[in-house]
C-alpha cells in the first residue's frame, strides 16, 4: 500500500508524462508543486518509490527519474483508485 504523498507523486509524474524516454531531475520535480517545508520529505518519498520499483532512474548521474513502464498498469490502477 502507498501513502497519500506517494500517490500524489505518481499522479503528478503521470500528469507530466514521465513515461518511456521522458524524464525529469528529482530536484526539478520536488521544486515545483510542493511547499518548501515538505521538500526533504518528498525527496525521501521519491527514493522510497525507486526502491519499490514504481519510479526508475533514467540517468542516475543527472539524478533524472521516470515512471517504470513495466508497471504501467499497476501504477495507473493505484492512481485511479488512490490505494
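-> sequence recovered:
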Amino acid at each position: 500500500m502507498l501513502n497519500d504523498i506517494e500517490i500524489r507523486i505518481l499522479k503528478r509524474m503521470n500528469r507530466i508524462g514521465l513515461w518511456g524516454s521522458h524524464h525529469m531531475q528529482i530536484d526539478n520535480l520536488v521544486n515545483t508543486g510542493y511547499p518548501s517545508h515538505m521538500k526533504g520529505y518528498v525527496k525521501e518519498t521519491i527514493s522510497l518509490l525507486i526502491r519499490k520499483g514504481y519510479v526508475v532512474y533514467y540517468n542516475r548521474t543527472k539524478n533524472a527519474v521516470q515512471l517504470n513502464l513495466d508497471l504501467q498498469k499497476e501504477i495507473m490502477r493505484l492512481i485511479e483508485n488512490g490505494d
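The chain has a mean pLDDT of 94.
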